[in-house]
Amino acid sequence: MxxxxxxxxxxxxxxxxxxxxxxxxxxxYVCGMTVYDYCHLGHARVMVAFDVITRxxxxxxxxxxxxxxxxxxxxxxxxRADENGESITALTERMIAAMHEDEARLFVLPPTHExxxxxxIDDIVAMIExxxxxxxxxxxxxxxxxxxxxxxxxxxxxxxxxxxDMRSGARVDVDVHKEDPLDFVLWKAAKPGEAHWxxxxxxxxxxxxxxxxxxxxxCLGDTFDIHxxxxxxxxxxxxxxxxxxxxxxxxxxxxxxxxxxxVRVNKEKMSKSLGNFFTIRDVLAEHDPEVVRFLLVxxxxxxxxxxxxxxxxxxxxxxxxxxxxxEGVDTDTIASSKASPxxxxxxxxxxxxxxxPEALAVMFELAREVNRAKQEQxxxxxxxxxELKQLGAILGLLQQAPQIFLKxxxxxxxxxxxxxxxxKIAQRIEAKANKDFAQADAIRDELSALGxxxxxxxxxxxxxxxxx
Length: 468
Description:
alpha/beta; 4-stranded parallel beta sheet; 15 helices; single chain; 14% strand; 44% helix
C-alpha cells in the first residue's frame, strides 16, 4: 500500500514515495483560518484540496488523523472586534460557525480535530520556555519574547532562501527590541485593555507562528507525516514553524510538506484592493456549491485556479455530463468488488500526487460507458453507474440525486420556480391534448429561452436546466 503512493514534497522539491511513520496511519496537520472574517475563495481551495487528500488516503485504507487548527487570537481579531464593538469571543464564535456552514455547503468533511489557539496557551508557553532554555529565544525588556533566527542552522530550507534575502518577507515590523531584524516574536506583551494570558514574561498573547508549532506537536507528536496549507504560508509561517519545533524537540518536525495552489480571479491575483475578492458565501449565493467544488477539484491541488464566469460555466457543463450519465440509472446497485480497469486507473493517477484532473478524465470515460449501456444493458449500466458514483464520492462529487442537480434546485436565481415550471409543462400537455401544437411549441420555446430544457418520454415530460 505504501510504496505505490508518491507525494510532492515542498521541502525537497520532488515527488517522493509516501511511507507513513506508523504503518496504516497518517498524521496530517493543515493550517486553518484566522477567524476574524468570512472565509474566502483561497480558503475554499485549501479546504477542498485537503478534503480530497483525506478522502483518498482513507479510501486507500489509511486511518487518517487530520488536524486543522483555528487561530482565534490575533491582531486582526482584536482590531475587528474593536471595530465591531463586540467581544473577541462573540466575533470568533460567529466566524467559526460561518466557516463550518461554508464547509458543509462545499461538501467538506470536518477534520478529526480542530484545536484552537486559546485552548493551548499552556502548551505554547511551555514550548517558548524550552526555546529560551536552549538559547533559541530571548525575552526582551518590553515583555516580548523573540526567536533567534540565526541560531537555527537550517533556517530557510523550506523556501531555499538565504538569511539576508528574507527581510522583505517578514510579517512583523522592525523592532528596536530585537537582537536581529530577522528575529520573530513568540510572545507579545499585552497593551492596556487587550486580551491577555499570564506568562513568566508578563501578561500577553502568543505570536502567530508558535501557535501552530504547539498545537501540531500536542495533537500529533514531535514528528508527523504531512503538513499542509495555502501557497502564501511557506514563508515566513511554515519556515518559522520548522525552526521553532525542531529547535525545541531536536527532531525532524514534518516528513512531507504540501501546499495548495493560489486562486486567481480572471487571471489576476485575488485581493481587496483590486475589487476581485470573493467570500465563499458571495460565490455560493450565485452558484451551485457542487459546481464550485468541481472547479476546485478539476485542477491539480498544486496548480493555480482561475475563477471566472467562464470557468464556472465549463465546470457546470462538465458536472452536468456526469450527472446526465447517472440519470435514470439504479446506482444503488453495488459496483463489482473485483478491480475494474476504471478503478485501477483512477487509483494509479491519484497515487501519483493526487492527480485529480486525470482522475476526472477516467470518470468521464466511465460516464460514456454508462451512457452506452443504458439502452440495452440496464444491469451493466447500473453496475458502471454505481462505480462512477463511488469514484465521485472520493472527490466529494456526484452524491446528489441526478434529477436534483439537473433541475438546478440548489442553484440560486432560477428563472422560474419549480412549481411555475411544472405549471408550464401542464399547460403544454393540455395544448397538445387539444391539438394546439403551435401553443405547445411556444411553451417549449419560452422555457428553452430561459435555459429550461424539456425531455419527453413514455413516462411523461421532465426538465433540466441547460448547462450554460
